[in-house]
Amino acid sequence: MISSADGDFRSFEFPRALTGAVKDQLAFSPAVVLLGPRQVGKTTLARHIAAVHPNAISLDLQLPGDREKLSEGSGFLQTHRDKLLVLDEVQYVPQVFSQLRPEIDALRRPGRYLLLGSASGRLLQQSSESLAGRASYLELTPLQVGEVMSDSAGTGDAALQTLQKLWLRGGYPVSYTAPTDALSFSWRTDFVATFLNRDIRELGVNVPAQTLHRFWRMTAHLHGSLFNASNLAASLGGISHTTVARYLDALTDTMMLRRLEPHFVNIGKRLVKSPKVYVRDSGLLHALLNLPDVDSLSGHPMAGPSWEGFVIEQICALLPKGADVGFYRTAAGAELDVVVELGSKKVGFEIKFSSAPKPTRGFWQACADIRLDHAYVVAPVAQGWPLTAEQPFSVDVISPTQLPWALAR
Q1: Which candidate, 81, 96, 92, 171, places its Cα nearest to that of 400?
Q2: 339 and 332 Cβ atoms separated by less than 8 Å
């Protein structure tokens, strides 16, 4: 799968899978809150949406002039009731949520507001009280496999090359489309520095940038492992485990880290109860680990865990609202990387960085414990194939390009 090709620069905008969902929600709900990390493409998507709405108005609430338009008593919202208002970086003006509530109640028309924000936890907490029942919430992730895979690169070696590039560089559009791997790596390194020194401070997280950088790098080296706050606290100089938990919350709320909780079943076995932690974007993970190219990545011990986190993000991006996702592990060694509950259906995923993956005994035991409907082994393969095993459910080896089929089956 791994080669040294950098790929060509692409300046076009990628068709985002979430576009249809945003349009549908705007046609139904007065307000739509679009969440996503910085530089992921929220503003570009919002411009695309606004282009089809006559007289749409966009405000960037990082700019003092635009913030002033929403000051108390300005009457801006009342004046533009007939337009779609796109409010970017709304976490900078938390009082806007209380302003929107009476406006929505006065005119409960679909498609009045599209709010863009870069901090999931704080935004949901702020808006839950004032916009309950008045807003829909969607998350825009970094670029996913289906968004960068052209029709000509859907199968075979071309698909593997595209997967490799997306895995190495991550899904931030500027990083993915950079002319070379070196420029992509440089952009991601600068992104990490800017995020720690400016962005996260502006979100109200008062932690020294150097301290948070050390914590982030430590979680990168523990990517895909069980999270132990006490051990990390000792490594950071003896700070309290509650402080470490606060750092984790900050990077989770800003959508830099994913906390994957264990999946519990009542089977009378000792289950692992600690969460796993992943750096959500594989490109940022490689920047934190100083892995600038495919040669350094392919021989690194973190290649397997990195691939695991990459696939987990692909799965999570495809899940509908209400789906439950976690991992399964028992003290006796039964383990499954991902368990997805979709209503009454349970689907399991084992993730292997191998062109000839072989599930372990722990995989089969986990499948039996959970009583899955389907199980899949996700690997960097050109084409999938069924595994032959005497099991009451089907098991297939698949490529990440086949994940939509696996989840819809």
Answers
A1: 171
A2: no
CA distance 43 to 202: 19
As a whole number of angstroms, the distance between CA 372 and CA 309 comes to 22
What is the amino acid identity at position 379? Answer: A
- Rounded distance between C-alpha atoms, residue 30 and residue 101, angstroms: 10
Judge whether 185 and 174 are in contact, CB under 8 Å: no
Q: Kindly list the averaged pLDDT for each block of 10 residues, start to end, along the chain of length 409.
A: 42 79 96 93 93 92 90 83 93 85 92 90 68 90 91 68 96 96 98 91 80 94 93 86 90 94 77 91 98 94 98 96 93 93 93 94 92 94 81 86 92
pLDDT at 10: 40
Q: How far is CA 141 from the centre of its chain?
A: 5
Burial degree of 351 (CB within 10 A; 0-12, 13-18, 19+): buried
State residue 95's pLDDT score: 82
**DSSP string for 45-93:** HHHHHHTTSTT-EEEETTSHHHHHHTSTT--HHHHTTTS-EEEESGGG-
Pairing of strands 276-279, 257-260: antiparallel
Q: Which CATH number fits domain 19-139: 3.40.50.300, 3.30.450.20, 3.20.20.140, 1.10.540.10?
A: 3.40.50.300
Q: What angle do CA 14, 16, 21 make, to 5 degrees?
A: 160
Distances (CA, A) of 79 to 103, 105, 142: 11, 15, 35
Burial of 215 (0-12, 13-18, 19+ CB in 10 A): buried
Of 269, 258, 253, 275, whose CA–CA distance to 203 is shortest? 253
* Dihedral angle computed from the Cα positions of residues 286, 287, 290 and 296, in that order, rounded to the nearest 10 degrees: 40
Domain spans, the chain: 19-139, 145-408
Predicted TM-score (pTM) of the model is: 0.92
Distance CA(303)–CA(351), nearest Å, equals: 12
Q: Rounded to 5, what percent of the chain is helix, strand, coil?
A: 45, 15, 40
Judge contact between 1 and 164, C-beta under 8 A: yes
